[in-house]
Specification:
alpha+beta; 9-stranded mixed sheet; 5-stranded mixed sheet; 10 helices
């Protein structure tokens, strides 16, 4: 159905009308008719279509109440007023017209265009450009948040200012093309206005080329600029460059509308009248996390006091995995070794481009400058959400994502985000609302909230991780299991190895208990029964929300100890927590547990290797005891990994 616009005839006069192709002009012939008019006839130029709505048009037509003439153009005009429609009114029985009224018509073409079919090309006048739909058969343009930094000496990401600092910055932006066709000039009262709503103006920036001395591009729309006036200059294609300024969030669904209106100002001093409006809609790319099953690109670790052995272990692992390793040195980390807690890697993507984006946690400890000063750069974005009240659960060891899963027929091709929290009915620790709201608002990886407040640190990476597997779902969920550890120790005791000692040969203040002593410690056993209940609650939730069966889960033997001596009583790993590992393709770097040595081998290492090697994984045990474990963390806590993005395109999700 074409856009309609009401126009009015004036008897004895020619009315000048400029009409945008695709708009149908409607004229009430009865209200414009002179007194005693009984019939009328219509004559039009070859470039005009006319139709009497609800009637078959004849040479002479009887005039009746509600008689509507519809007028539309066939092609853009070459000159102003080069098309004409005339109406003659007749009295009853007369062959001579009583009055004549006419339109002098100028037809122009105006189309605001985007890549609505998501193929990387801005097509002309896509019928779906003004709406947005998810799915492989969906439509709607996509916008990237311009959160990288093209120029190294710049102090801010590119979405902070209204400048284009380098030509490469344009590549991060989506295109709009304003296509026009018609006479070279129109009367001065006509103009085009590009605009954005006030509520969306702080979320988008629009630039165009210019002949400036210091810049090739001019900021014309966004932030405090709500509109930009353009002159009609005949057949032209004017290109605009659009940047996103912020990600979807609690009060922003990610959709942005940009409009162009063709307006007329009948007289000076009176407001313009919009004659035609075209609209395009963008959706901001969400921030997407990457799971352990994706290929690693770069690993990160800190250089701090007493972690030389740990770094060597990580270096050996990254060499074997052919993965780049970046070391954050003391001048930047200032003694903060918890690389995983400081940041999480993800990416954003549009049909024309994508790049990694680091999510900087609100913990803001000594490592706080590393993501912003060392990672933010050309084609590497940065986003953060700060809050005044921060607790341990706001660190990103408490933020993970599952591999792709299908749950009760619903497919999650990008997996689901996992965060730790307390029970809804308790007053324990929770992740900050600004972080939770951000994660939920991305939509494509719907979060699951687990129970982690039973741990003194409170991070979900202390009791779970995912590893790739060549069969079944393509991955396994690993869960810590005190029950599995007690079962293993009982088996070893029954085999006559009750005197085998934990932490043998290790310099530590911890008492080096035998297997028999551990099994005889009823308080420790009862406490681990409680811990197992906490883990099992999460196990059941993960099975339900990720569509897992018991065959998809592997229990990793770990015992926990009571860390807090007063309520709320919270747990920490008794020996290095082997679930807290780094995963690099088929190689896994596991905290060395320093378990009981039986027949020359650590029985804990031997057990975990027997569980993981059948999946095609190669296990390397890294000594993190003094440098991380005794500080309530492990290998995963002290490292971080940037991975390749999913091959699946997020806009093809069925939501």
């Amino acid at each position: 159905m074409p856009t309609e616009r009401t126009v009015r005839l004036e008897c004895g006069m020619a009315v000048n009308v400029v009409c945008v192709l695709g708009t149908r002009l409607t004229v009430d012939l009865y209200s414009c008719a002179p007194l005693k008019a009984y019939e009328y006839s219509i004559k039009s130029s070859s470039g005009v279509n006319t139709e009497i709505l609800g009637k078959n048009e004849k040479l002479r037509n009887t005039l009746s109440l509600g008689e509507i003439l519809a007028i539309s153009g066939k092609a853009p005009s070459q000159e102003v007023d080069d098309q004409k429609v005339s109406v003659w009114y007749y009295e009853k029985g007369s062959d001579s017209p009583k009055e004549k009224a006419s339109f002098l018509l100028t037809f122009v073409e105006i189309s605001l265009d985007v890549d609505a079919d998501r193929d990387g090309v801005v097509e002309k006048n896509n019928p779906n450009k003004s709406s947005w739909k998810w799915g492989p058969k969906g439509h709607g343009a996509i916008l990237l948040v311009n959160c990288d930094k093209e120029v190294s000496f710049s102090g801010f990401p590119d979405n902070i200012d209204n400048q284009i600092s380098h030509d490469s910055d344009i590549e991060d932006m989506s295109r709009i093309i304003l296509r026009t066709q018609g006479p070279l000039t129109l009367p001065e009262r006509y103009k085009m206005v590009l605009y954005v709503s006030q509520s969306e103006s702080d979320k988008v920036g629009v630039f165009c080329r210019c002949d400036g001395i210091f810049s090739k591009y001019q900021h014309i729309l966004g932030r405090k600029k709500l509109f930009h006036v353009l002159k009609f200059k005949g057949k032209m294609e004017t290109e605009f460059f659009v940047e996103g300024l912020c990600f979807p969030d609690k009060d922003f669904d990610g959709l942005i509308s940009i409009n162009v209106s063709f307006t007329e100002q009948p007289d000076k001093g009176v407001p313009e009248i919009p004659l035609f409006t075209d609209k395009v809609v963008f959706r901001m790319s969400p921030w997407i996390m990457t799971p352990n099953t994706l290929e690693p690109v770069e690993a990160y670790v800190c250089c701090v006091e007493n972690n030389d052995t740990f770094r060597k272990g990580v270096k050996n692992l990254t060499n074997e995995a052919e993965c780049k390793l970046t070391v954050c040195y003391p001048f930047m980390n200032r003694g903060d070794r918890w690389m995983q807690d400081e940041m999480e890697f993800g990416y954003i993507e549009a049909p024309h481009k994508g790049f990694p984006v680091v999510f900087d946690s609100p913990r803001n400890r000594e490592l706080k400058d590393f993501p912003y000063k060392k990672i933010l750069g050309p084609d590497f974005g940065h986003v953060t959400h700060n809050t005044k009240e921060v607790n341990s659960l706001d660190s990103f060891g408490n933020l993970e994502v599952s591999p792709p899963v299908t749950v009760n027929g619903k497919h999650y091709p990008l997996g689901r985000i996992l965060i730790g929290s307390c029970f809804p009915t308790s007053s324990g620790r929770r992740m900050a609302n600004v972080v939770r709201d951000f994660l939920y608002a991305q939509q494509v990886q719907p979060p699951i909230e687990l129970y982690s407040d039973w741990l003194v640190v409170g991070h979900i990476d202390e009791f779970m991780t995912f590893v790739p597997a060549k069969d079944q779902k393509g991955f396994r969920l690993l869960l810590t299991s005190p029950a599995a550890c007690y079962k293993l120790f009982r088996e070893k005791m029954e085999q006559g190895h009750g005197d085998a000692v934990m932490f043998e040969g290790l310099k530590t203040k911890k008492k080096k208990k035998t297997i028999t002593e551990i099994l005889s410690d009823k308080f420790l056993e009862n406490f681990n029964a409680y811990v197992q209940q906490c883990i099992d609650w999460n196990r059941d939730l993960l099975k339900q929300e990720l569509g897992l069966s018991e065959d998809d889960i592997i229990d990793i033997p770990v015992i926990f100890k009571l860390e807090c001596k007063k309520a709320p009583y919270q747990a920490a790993a008794y020996f290095p927590d082997m679930v807290n590992m780094i995963v690099l393709c088929n190689r896994v770097g596991i905290p060395k547990p320093f378990g009981p040595i039986i027949n020359g081998k650590c029985c804990l290492e031997e057990k975990v290797t027997s569980l993981l090697e059948p999946l095609g994984l190669e296990c390397a045990f890294i000594d993190d005891f003094e440098s991380y474990h005794e500080n309530l963390g492990e290998v995963h806590c002290g490292t971080n990994v940037r991975r390749k993005p999913f091959e699946f395109k997020w806009w093809n999700m069925e939501l």
